[in-house]
Automatic annotation (TrEMBL), chains A, B, C, D:
<keyword id="KW-0028">Amino-acid biosynthesis</keyword>
<keyword id="KW-0288">FMN</keyword>
<keyword id="KW-0274">FAD</keyword>
<dbReference type="InterPro" id="IPR020541">
    <property type="entry name" value="Chorismate_synthase_CS"/>
</dbReference>
<feature type="binding site">
    <location>
        <position position="316"/>
    </location>
    <ligand>
        <name>FMN</name>
    </ligand>
</feature>
<dbReference type="GO" id="GO:0009423">
    <property type="term" value="P:chorismate biosynthetic process"/>
</dbReference>
<feature type="binding site">
    <location>
        <begin position="290"/>
        <end position="294"/>
    </location>
    <ligand>
        <name>FMN</name>
    </ligand>
</feature>
<comment type="similarity">
    <text>Belongs to the chorismate synthase family.</text>
</comment>
<dbReference type="InterPro" id="IPR035904">
    <property type="entry name" value="Chorismate_synth_AroC_sf"/>
</dbReference>
<keyword id="KW-0456">Lyase</keyword>
<dbReference type="GO" id="GO:0009073">
    <property type="term" value="P:aromatic amino acid family biosynthetic process"/>
</dbReference>
<dbReference type="GO" id="GO:0005829">
    <property type="term" value="C:cytosol"/>
</dbReference>
<feature type="binding site">
    <location>
        <begin position="235"/>
        <end position="236"/>
    </location>
    <ligand>
        <name>FMN</name>
    </ligand>
</feature>
<keyword id="KW-0285">Flavoprotein</keyword>
<keyword id="KW-0057">Aromatic amino acid biosynthesis</keyword>
<comment type="subunit">
    <text>Homotetramer.</text>
</comment>
<feature type="binding site">
    <location>
        <position position="275"/>
    </location>
    <ligand>
        <name>FMN</name>
    </ligand>
</feature>
Length: 357, 357, 357, 357
C-alpha cells in the first residue's frame, strides 16, 4: 500500500521525524546510466529553505544509493535510495502532542491506526515526497533515452493565473512561475498571506513532451486515471484536470473535439489522451493544491481525548505548498509515463515476435 | 489491466458490438444477500433509450449471474455476470470503417494495438460501463449492511449549475438533476445542442454518506487517489475534484481548514478526506464530463492510411454523456469504498487479535 | 484472489454445479490468430468420460468466446470464455448435504466462508480446471509464434515409474503415458484400485522446449517459484520438483552442477532454471498428484454440526486424477511461460530504446 | 518483482557486495510490539561463520530499523530495515570476473540483463536472505499474538534422514538437526564432502502450529501454492512437498485420506491444507536444497565471450546450504502465514459487519 506502479514500481518508507526516509525503485531496465548528480539536483529543487517563499526548515536531503547500481549503470535489480533526516532535533512537542491540527491527517491516522507519531506529520508529512523526487529522477533519466521530457511550473497562486506557459523560464523563477508577467503578483500574494500568519493555494501545470502514442492500459490502468491517482495522492492536492479539464464540461462537442489532419491534431483540448491512451500530442495536467493547513492563527480543534481547545500552531511552514509541490508533480508524472512505456511493450504480437526472434 | 480494486476486485470484458459484455467480481464476502432485482434496477438506471435526453439506441441490458451465488447468497467465490448484446444488428459500417472519429479512442487504439474493431467503439465504448454498474450494485448491497450510502446526481449541464444538491429528488428527474430549479434550463440546453447536431458537457456530484473513519491505504492507495483514478477512468471524464477541489487553490488556509469540535468538523471543505483517509464526514466528489464526441456536424479527420477527409458521423448518440455517466460514477464510488472497507480490516493489531480469538 | 499472472492475467469463475464456468484472459497481445478449434481440442483432451480410466460423468465442455477476438484475431482486449454446465441435473444431494467428504475441501470452505454449496465440490471442484485449459490453449498459441512448446505426460502411476519420456507418444495413450513399456502396468493398477472402490496417485512430467534465456523476474517472481505455485495450486497436487528435484538433496555438488561448454550445458540437473531464470535448456517439472479423495469405501467423518458418521460416497469419479491433471499442468505451464515472456520485455534499456525508436 | 505478499508485503533490495541490503515491510498492523532483540536474534541464527559447517565468511548482520516503529510499536507505516555489508573488502575478482560459475545464476543474469556484477553473486547471492529473515522475524512477532508458531529443522543431509522430528531440540544443534540420533552422521557427511572440496544437499522440514482454519485465498492465492512459491524461491531449493508430498502419489485414496472425528482429523497426510485452505492441523512442508554449487574442484565452463575454460573456484562457501537455509524457510513461512491471516479477515459478511459496527 506504500507502493506505486506496475512494471516500474516504487515503494517508499520513512517519516518526517524518524531516522531516515527513502525508496526502493524496482523494474528499472538494466544498463541505464545513473547520473547521481542529476538525482541530487532534482532533490535540491524540492529541498526546503531556499527562499522566503518556502519553510525556513533546512534539510540537507542528501541521497545515498544503497543498491541496484554498479559501475554507474543500473543492473536491473532494485535501486534503494535513502535520505537520512538531519533536522529532527529533539524538541518540545508538548504543544501538539495530543492535539489534532486542523486540515492535517493527524485525526484520520489516529483513528485508523489507534496511535500517533506526535512529533510532526510522521508518515503523512510532505517530507516523504523527497523519496518520490529521487525515484522520479531515475524515471526522467530513463525517459530521456527515449527523448521524452516532463516539465512543470506554477500556473496559479491565490487565484492569480498565468496567461502564458513558459516552461523554459521556470528554472529562473524562485517560485517556479510559468508566466513572468504575473510572477511578482503571485509572490506578493504569498508574502501577504505569510505576514498574516495565513497560507495560499496554487496550481501546478505539468506537460509531458514527445511521449509515444499508445501509452496507457485500458480500461483500468488508463493513462489519465493513473495520472489522476498519482497527482491526487500528493499532499494537499484536491483536484486534477487532464487537458481542458473542468472547462470541457461547459463547452460543446463541436468546440471540444480535436479535429485531425495528416500532420496531427488541430487542437489539444484532450490533453494528449484519448480513451485513456496517449495520442502523441503533449500530455497536459493541472494539479490544484489547497493552501497549507499549517497556519499560525488560532483555530478550533480537539484533543485525542475529544476535549475542545483553541489552538495556535508554532513552527516553520511553507506559505504555499504548490511551489515545492510542482517538483513532486513532475516526479510522479515521470514515474507514471516510464511505467506505461514498459507496460506497453507487449501490446502487439508482432512486436513480441520481433523482440524475441 | 482490465481489473480494478485490491480486495474487492472486478474485471470486465466485452465490446460494444461483440457477443456479450460482463464482469467477474472477486472478493465479495460470503453470506451477503444478493438481490438480483436491485442489480437489474441499477442497470436500468444506466440503460439507454429512456428519453430524448439519451441515445435512442435500445439495449435490454439484462444481467445474468453465472457463478458465486447459491440460494440467494454470495458464497465467497467470484461472481460472474454477463449481459448479452442484443442490438448489435449487422449494419453497414463502411461510413466509419477506415475513419478516425474525432474525440474518440479510435486513433489511439489503432496505434496501440495495430488493428481495429471498426463496428463502433469496441472496447472503448461506454457500453462497457454496464458491467461496472452491475458490479457496483453488489458493492452497494455490501455497503448497505454497514449503513453506508452512495448517492449522486447532475449538478451542472453546459455551464448551468445547481445551487442546491437534493439527492433525494434525483430519482424524480429524467436527467438525474440535483436542483429542480435549474433542471428545465439544463434540459433546454441539451435539446438545443441536440437540435444543432451538437452535444454538451456536464458534471456529476457524488456523495458517500456514513463511511467509517479510516478508509484509505496511505500513501499510494489513498482514498482520494483511488477515487480520482476510478472517476477519471470513466469515459469522457476530464477532471475530478475532492471536496472544494479547484476552489481550494484560490482560498486561504484560514478559510479552507475544517476546524474541529467535539461533535465533528465545523465545515467540509476537505470533502471528507484528510491525508488520503476518510474522516467520517460526507465524502464529496465532482466529476467533469466533456461533451459527447459523437456529433453530427462535419469534422476534419484522417483515415487509417493517413488520408485527410471531411467526415459526418451518423447514428444515435447521447447528447450529454454526463447524465447516464452519473450512474457509473456512483457504481465506481461504491466499488472503491467497499474495497477500502475490506482493506482497512487489518490496520490495528488489536483488531486482528480480536477477530481471531 | 481468483486471478493468476502479471502481464498475462487470467481470472476464472464458476462452480461444478452452477450455471457456467469460465475465464477472462487479459493481456494477450493484439494480432494473435485465435484458433478456436485448437482451444476446443485442448478442452477435449481434459474432458471427462473418454475411457474407463476416467470418471463416467459426461460434460460437453463446449467453449464459447464472448469477447476480445475480432475477425479471428485477438484485439488486445480481455478474452472472455464461457463453458455452460450441462450435466448438473437436479439430483438428490441428501447423501452429502451435511457431511464433510474426507480429503476434500468441504471442511475448509465451510469454515472459511460459513456456508456451503452442498451440490458437489462447488468452486473447489477440479471442474474449474476446464477454464485453465481454455486459457492455456491461448497461451500455447502465443508461444507457438515464438517456437516454444509445452509438453507433458504421465510418468508414474501408483508407484509404477516411466523409464523413458516419450512426449511424442503421449497422444496415442489413453492415459497419456510417457513410457509405453510400463503403460499396461499403470493401467492395471488404476483398474485394480477402481475395482476395490479405491483410487491411486500419479505423477505428471512437464517439459517446456525452446524457451528463451532470461525468463523469470527475480527475486519474488522467479520462474521456478511461480511454476511451483501454479502446479501446487492444481487440485490434488502435493509436491513439485524442478529438474532433479528431491534427488538433488541427496547428491554432491560435483554431481549436481551442470557444467558448461560453448554449445550449451553438459547436463540438465537444474531443469533449465538457474537463480529463478531460464537458461535456455529444457524446463522440466514433476508434479505429484495424490489419489482421488473420492472413494467408495466407508470412511469416518463428521457433519456440519460436528456429529460423527460413517460415510460411503456415491457417484462417478476419476480413479486417478493425475491423468486428466497432466493436461492442466501443461496449460498452467504455458500460462506461466507466456506471462514471463511478456514480463521479460523491459529487462534491458537498449531493448526498450530499440522498441520505441 | 522484488516484492512478496499481498496484505503483508515485503520488498527487498541489495547485493552481496554492494553498500547494504535490506527490506521494506508494508502492512504490519499498528500497535504490534517490535522486539528488536528478537529480530537480531533471528538474524544471528542465519548469520554465517558460526561453525565449520558453514562458510567461514564473517558478517556482522546488524539490522537497523529506519522507519515504521515509534516508541517500540509498529505505527502501521512501512518498516524499513537495513543491513550494511561490512565484509565486502576490495579484493581481486579477476579469477571469476568473466567466467560463469557452474550451478550459479551468473549465466542467466548476464543474458537477462546484459551486464554483470562480477564481484560475487550480486543480487542472486543467498546473502539477500538476511533481509527475509528480518522481515520474517516481524511476521513471527505478529503470529505470536495469535499463538501461532513457525518451527523448522534439518531432516535430511546427503541422503541421511531424520526418523523423528524434535523441533524443540533444534536450538541445541549447530546444524539445526531434528533428529539427534542421525545428527553425527549428517555432520560427518558434510565434513567429508568439505574435505573433498565438494558439497552436499539437504532437506528442511517446516511446521506451522496452531494456524487458524480458513487461511488461503482460493483459487490462485492458495495457501499451498503460495508456500510452494515462497520456498521454491529460496536459493538452491529444487522441490517442495506439502504433507506427505511425493509419497502421496504412490498411495491409495483409502490410505491417504485423513478421516475425521469430532475432535479432529485422524491423520495428517494432507499437511494441514485441503483445497488450498488450512484445516487447523499442523501445516507441514519439506523443502529440498541442492548441494552448494560453489565447490573447489575443477569444472568445465565458459566465459562471457563464450570461450571454454576449466575453472576452479576459490573462496569460502557453505558446504551445505540447507543448514542456514532452514532459517530462511521459517521466515518465509511466517511471512506467508501472516499475510494469509490478514487476507482472510474479509471472508464472511457477518465478520465484516461485526468489525465495523
Amino acid at each position: 500500500m506504500n507502493s506505486f506502479g506496475q512494471k516500474l514500481r516504487f515503494s517508499t518508507f520513512g517519516e518526517s521525524h524518524g531516522t531516515a526516509l527513502g525508496c526502493v525503485l524496482d523494474g528499472v531496465p538494466a544498463g541505464l546510466e545513473i547520473d547521481e548528480a542529476f538525482i541530487q539536483n532534482e532533490l535540491d529543487r524540492r529541498k526546503p529553505g531556499k527562499s522566503e517563499f518556502e519553510t525556513a526548515r533546512k534539510e540537507a536531503d542528501k541521497v545515498e544509493i544503497l543498491s541496484g547500481v554498479f559501475e554507474g549503470k543500473s543492473t536491473g535489480t532494485p535501486i534503494a535510495m535513502v535520505i537520512y533526516n538531519t533536522n529532527q532535533k529533539s524538541k518540545d512537542y508538548s504543544n501538539i502532542k495530543d492535539v489534532f491540527r486542523p486540515g492535517h491527517a493527524d485525526f484520520t491516522y489516529f483513528h485508523k491506526y489507534g496511535l500517533r507519531d506526535y512529533r510532526g506529520g510522521g508518515r503523512s508529512s510532505a517530507r516523504e515526497t523527497a523519496a518520490r523526487v529521487a525515484a522520479g529522477a531515475i524515471a526522467k533519466l530513463m525517459l530521456k533515452e527515449l527523448d521524452v521530457e516532463v516539465l512543470s511550473g506554477i500556473s496559479e497562486v491565490a487565484g492569480i493565473k498565468a496567461e502564458k506557459f513558459n516552461y523554459a523560464g521556470v528554472k529562473d523563477s524562485i517560485i517556479y512561475a510559468l508566466d513572468s508577467d504575473v510572477e511578482q503578483a503571485q509572490k506578493d500574494a504569498i508574502l501577504e498571506a505569510k505576514k498574516r500568519h495565513d497560507s495560499v493555494g496554487g496550481v501546478s501545470r505539468v506537460v509531458v513532451k514527445n511521449a509515444p502514442i499508445g501509452l496507457g492500459q485500458p480500461l483500468y490502468y488508463k493513462l489519465d486515471g493513473v495520472l489522476a491517482d498519482a497527482m491526487m495522492g500528493i499532499n494537499a492536492v484536491k483536484a486534477v484536470e487532464i487537458g481542458d479539464g473542468c472547462l470541457s464540461a461547459k463547452t460543446l462537442g463541436s468546440q471540444n473535439n480535436d479535429q485531425i489532419r495528416a500532420n496531427g491534431f488541430e487542437s489539444n483540448h484532450s490533453g494528449g489522451i484519448l480513451g485513456g491512451i496517449s495520442n502523441g500530442d503533449d500530455i497536459v495536467l493541472n494539479v490544484y493544491f489547497k493552501p497549507t493547513p499549517s497556519i499560525f492563527q488560532e483555530q478550533h480543534t480537539i484533543t485525542t481525548t475529544n476535549e475542545e481547545v483553541d489552538f495556535s500552531l508554532k513552527g516553520r511552514h511553507d506559505p504555499c505548498v504548490a511551489i515545492r509541490g510542482t517538483i513532486v508533480c513532475e516526479a510522479m508524472a515521470a514515474l507514471v509515463i516510464a511505467d506505461m512505456v514498459l507496460l506497453n511493450m507487449g501490446s502487439k504480437m508482432d512486436g513480441v515476435v520481433k523482440y524475441y526472434k
